[in-house]
Each structure stands twice: as structure tokens, then as C-alpha cells.
Amino acid sequence: MEACKHFNPTAKVIKTGTRGQYGPATQLPVNELAPTNPRGIYEISTLTAEKIMKVYNDVHGVKSVLLRLTNIYGPRSQMKHSRFGVVNWFVRLALENKNIQVFGDGSILRDFLYIDDCVQGILMAGATQVAEGEIFNVGDDKPTSFLELVKKIIELVGSGSWNFSDFTPERKAQEPGDYYSDISKIRQFVGWEPKIDLTEGLKRTLDYYRLNGHHYW
Q1: Superfamily for domain range 2-210
Q2: Angle 122-124-127 from CA coordinates, rounded to 5°
Q3: Residues of the chain with pLDDT under 50
Q4: Least packed by Cβ within 10 Å: which of 21, 57, 121, 175?
């Protein structure tokens, strides 16, 4: 941001952060005015970067658009491990006819956003003048439980299994609970909302990895 200030002050910076910046939800759906109490170092770092960019926008005139992305899934995501992209990891396990662990009782809610919708949201927000200096959720206001997600994946793939599993102490301490996005602000300012529902998004994801999965794991 300092480099932009000195050498390219007319640049516009588009920052993609994470819904994890909120931490545990105080109310659902979660809007951009909700408290930010993240429970992980990664989420703290992305929130800090967002605040730095907001200062440069407000004080120094280096334009920025600040986005908080929900759980993104779809083609071309890494699938080598489970640390990022939970939906894609579940898809890989089902395609390999392996077991998927559902933590707790599977009732935790999340909103899952297909990659094409996510990219469209980023591009539209970046191209919209009234979005400059604003923070937006990029998500879906239609939540799904993890158990519903896993059952849907196994149904569409036609293989795989699942079982309930206890949280590890560390994972339990970091788990924020239910989360799904209030996207009314980005809908109002930018005119964006997701077009691809979970079933259709999963079908497209499966079609891609059935052909190309060997490149990703």
C-alpha cells in the first residue's frame, strides 16, 4: 500500500479476506457490521491487512475494495490435503470411495459459494465505483449443514461413506459455530448475488474432477 501511495496512487486494490475474520457469529446471517473476533492466526492476519488497506483508502486516497469470502469450492482448487477447501476435500474422498468424517453432530451451518459466482462477485465489486472503500461479504444467504453437504456429495458421486467424529480439543476451541453471510450490502451496492445453487455447483465440480482429478492429488 505504501508503494501504491508513492508510485501508483491511482491504483485500486481488491482484497479478498475470509468470513473467518468475524469469528463466532453474534447473530445470523452475519453482516459487515458484526464484531470481528477471529480465532485463528490466518484470520487475524487477513483482518489486519484489511484494516491497513482501509486506512490507506480513507486517509491517503489509495482506493480499495475489501471482500470477505465464504467457503469457496469448485474446479481447479487444490485437493492434496484437508487444510483448505473443505468441500473439495470431501469431493475427493467421495470420488476415491473413502470415508468422510463429520465433526460433532453435523448440524453446524455454513454457506458454500461456487467459484464462478465468487469470481463474478470480485470482478463486479472491483469495477463498481460506489464499492470503493467498502467492505462486502461475498457468500450465499442460503445455509447448509455439514451433514447435508456430505450426504449430497455422496449421493451425487455415487460412492463414499461418512461417520460422526469428535472434534480434537484444538479444533473445538477454534470452531466458530454456525455462519452464513448476509449479502444484502453487495447486492445493493454492486448488483451481485450467486446464481449457481449447491447441487448444480457440486455437479459441475464432480464433472471436472472426474476428468482432471489426477492433476490435483
Answers
A1: NAD(P)-binding Rossmann-like Domain (3.40.50.720)
A2: 105
A3: none
A4: 175
